[in-house]
Structure formats: C-alpha cells, structure tokens
Amino acid sequence: MPRIADKNADGVAFLFRTEEEAKARERGGGSAFIVGRPLKDSERIFGRTLYLAYLVSNKHVVFGASACVASVNRRDGAPPDVWDIDQNDWYPHPGGDDLVATSAHPHFQSQFHKVSFIQEDKFIGPKEIADYNLGIGDEIFMIGRFYNHQGAAQNKPALRLGTVSMMQEPIWVEEDGRFQDSYAVEMRSKEGFSGSPVALYRKPWTYLAEDLPDDRHMDDYWGLLGVNWGYINDEHGENTWLNGVVPAWKITELLNIPELRAIQTFHEREIQKMPQKRGGVSKSSYVPKPTAEPPQNPTHKADFNRLLGAAVKRPKSSDQT
Fold this sequence. Notes:
about 15% helix
C-alpha cells in the first residue's frame, strides 16, 4: 500500500451513545464520515466552490445502537467537540439499506473543526466499475474507529487494509432480516469500524487483469467503494472474516431524499440573496441571516452564519478521505 496523507483521517467522526460516553472515550458506538455536496452557484458568487457537509454512517449504528452523538477533532488541539445530534435528524436510506445521513450544518464550522470530506464525484458507481474494469483483487483501505486504541485525548482513526473479494451481490444480514446489496471485502477489521468509508485504489503495478482499450488501468486511481457495515457471517452464524460494504452510489440516493434535498436547496437559495461584487462577495456579506427556516427540518435553527462555516473550500486531493 502506498503512503497516504495524514489528512485522510480527518474525514472520520466517532459516534457514541451519549455526550458523557463521548467525553469519557467509552467503548461502544461506531464511525461516521463527512461527505461534501457542492452548493449551486457558489463559485459564481464567492469565486470558489463551497460545499455543505453531511455525516454518513450505518443505520444499525445510529438507530440500532442509538449512537448518534458525534465526536470531532478541533483545529486548536483542545478536546474533541461533541455534537449531540437528535436521532430524528438522522435520515435512513429510502430503500432500507444500512445507511443514514444528517446535515452537519448546525454543528460544523470549518474554522474550528479539523476535518476533510469526500466529494460525490469520487463515489464509485457502475460507470466507474466499467470504465476502469474494477473488480476482485483491487486493493482497498478503510479509516475508522478502533475501540482498543481510539486516542486518549483526541480522536485517532485507524487504517485497515484489504482487497475486493466479490463484487456487488445481495448478502443476507440476519440481524436485519433482509438482503443488503454489498461488496464482500477481505479486510482486517474489528468492532467500531461500522460506518467507516472504504476506498478503492489502484496503482499501475497492482493491475494484473486484461488490458483496457484506452489503458485507463495504467493511471493512478482511487474512489469511495462504499460504507463498511460489518462482518459477513455464514449460515451457522460463524464469522467468515469477510466484511460487507454498502455501495457508495447508494449514499447519493440517500442524500437525494426530499428532507435532505430541502436543506441543500434552502442554503442554495440563501446564497443567491447575498450581495455580489466582482470576483465574489465582500467579507461583510458573509454573515447574513436567513429569512426562513429550512423546510421540513425544523430542528436546524442555526443562523446563516454557520452556512459559511459548514461550506468548505474545494480540497486538494490530499484533503480527501
């Protein structure tokens, strides 16, 4: 595995059941990570693309284990901030997949919080699989919460490595009583990594399959394969030591549900009201207050000042998880 930038770990948040457990660094809970959605017209208005931040995790972590309190590192090195997110503000995948998401806007401020995020254009879907001939043997890595050594004072995400064992197939999950569309991956994992992002990467020397017509396999490549949901057990309940990964494109399906689209649309409309100047807006224009609350989401009562804290700059490639 090539060396990856330390900033990749900044996209991970730790999930706990209560604020007290988060501050005491208790075991239990799981992982989450940050996805950034571009705010329409922000580049024209601000001179750069801004993003609205969302937290993504597993449904079984947030609803099954009631771990909806997020711990996020601060830039100043102080103890992590703890976000007590109402469970009602987490939205499940409309098709029942083991995914949830929430807007981080009421909590996240880029000037205070040490975070990075994944853009949707890095999600691996059917097109990327076909274009790059992605499949079994491609290498992966996961960054998430390792209960045994999660950091005494700061969140310290751990890196786990592996390979794709099987491409997407419905896999029976006994606890849910349903089939979950999943990739099966060979990966050294442990409790606490549920909800972690799983990235696939390729270097020219790792490709052993047949050539592609345009030699795209010779390019460096990485993308988000999906979200780790846990161990795959056999019919006897024994651990197969393969992990299941919810496909990344299902995150887009989740972020497009009416409730989350309404939040995104609200902020896109608000930035349209901001007074414009050549090359962007003046600093004094960065803190207007909204005239109305985001529709269908009355619990998000932060003023518009936080939009520009939550709307982060386009990251360099090393800033992405």
